[in-house]
TrEMBL record:
Record's keyword annotation contains Transmembrane: yes
Membrane-protein topology: Multi-pass membrane protein
Cited PANTHER family: CHEMOTAXIS PROTEIN MOTA (PTHR30433), MOTILITY PROTEIN A (PTHR30433:SF3)
Sequence ranges assigned to domain MotA/TolQ/ExbB proton channel in this UniProt record: 97-202
Pfam family of the protein (one): MotA_ExbB
Protein name in the entry: Motility protein A
Keyword tags: Cell membrane, Membrane, Protein transport, Transmembrane, Transmembrane helix, Transport
Length: 241
């Protein structure tokens, strides 16, 4: 839905410009775009390191994809039933077949006979680390959303001052005021239509991942405490409502 939403926002914006009597070609100003993007990304880069930039690049390539849980709630219940009937060692083939790394490690902890407190600590550490990585990406995008309108406003003021310094040439003054307006629009559009939606989606995906990890932790602890699978199934049913 990310790409669909961005396309709808941009299309309706441009349609509104056309219906109001304007032209879309008037909005294309390469120097203004270079000023806004260059200053915005430069300031964001100044507050980041290579690790954070790698996280941003990796997340942006998959941000448009829908969130798909690495395991379903039914899978967790089946794991609990298997461990209840056949013992924890029966989960070893399951751990080898799970594609999610954390789920496989959690199952291996069960197989090794780890205590519930140890399993909870291990999964909690992994959950916090995963969430922290996602929030770093969201914060980077939010920084872009803050700097874009600020840099465009500064650039627009500079252009206006330069135009005001040439009162003998009305044409250059009009062009300067127009470029200042376009520069300001670029900053606001990039912030409202691009950076903020990307940051919001990143945070939403982080929450989805965290909730998914909570269900995994609940299942692992339930198995380690030898609870009836029905009890786990009932809790997961309440979580999914």
């Amino acid at each position: 839905m990310l790409i669909t939403g961005l396309v709808i926002a941009c299309t309706l914006f441009l349609l509104g410009v056309i219906l109001s009597g304007g032209t879309t070609t008037a909005l294309f100003n390469v120097p203004a775009l270079i000023i806004v993007l260059g200053a915005t990304f430069g300031l964001a880069l100044a507050q980041s390191d290579r690790r954070r930039l790698r996280l941003v690049g990796k997340r942006l390539t998959t941000l448009h994809l829908p969130y798909v849980p690495p395991y379903q709630e039914n899978d967790l219940v089946v794991w609990a039933q298997t461990a209840r009937k056949e013992g924890r060692l029966a989960l070893e083939p399951v751990a080898q077949g799970v594609t999610d790394t954390l789920a496989a490690q959690g199952l291996q902890c069960l197989i090794d006979g780890a205590e519930p407190d140890d399993i909870e600590h291990f999964v909690n550490v992994a959950m916090v680390a995963e969430e922290e990585r996602e929030l770093q990406v969201a914060e980077f995008l939010e920084q872009l959303a803050i700097y874009a309108p600020l840099m465009s406003a500064i650039a627009a003021v500079i252009v206006v001052l330069q135009s005001a310094a040439q009162p003998t040439n009305p044409l250059l003054s009009q062009i300067g005021f127009f470029n200042a307006g376009v520069t300001l629009v670029y900053g606001l559009m990039l912030s409202a239509i691009v950076f903020l939606p990307l940051a919001s989606r990143t945070r939403w995906l982080a929450r989805c991942q965290y909730r998914c990890r909570e269900t995994l932790l609940d299942a692992l602890l339930s198995i380690s405490r030898n609870e009836p699978p029905r009890r786990l199934s009932d809790r997961l049913a309440y979580r999914s409502k």
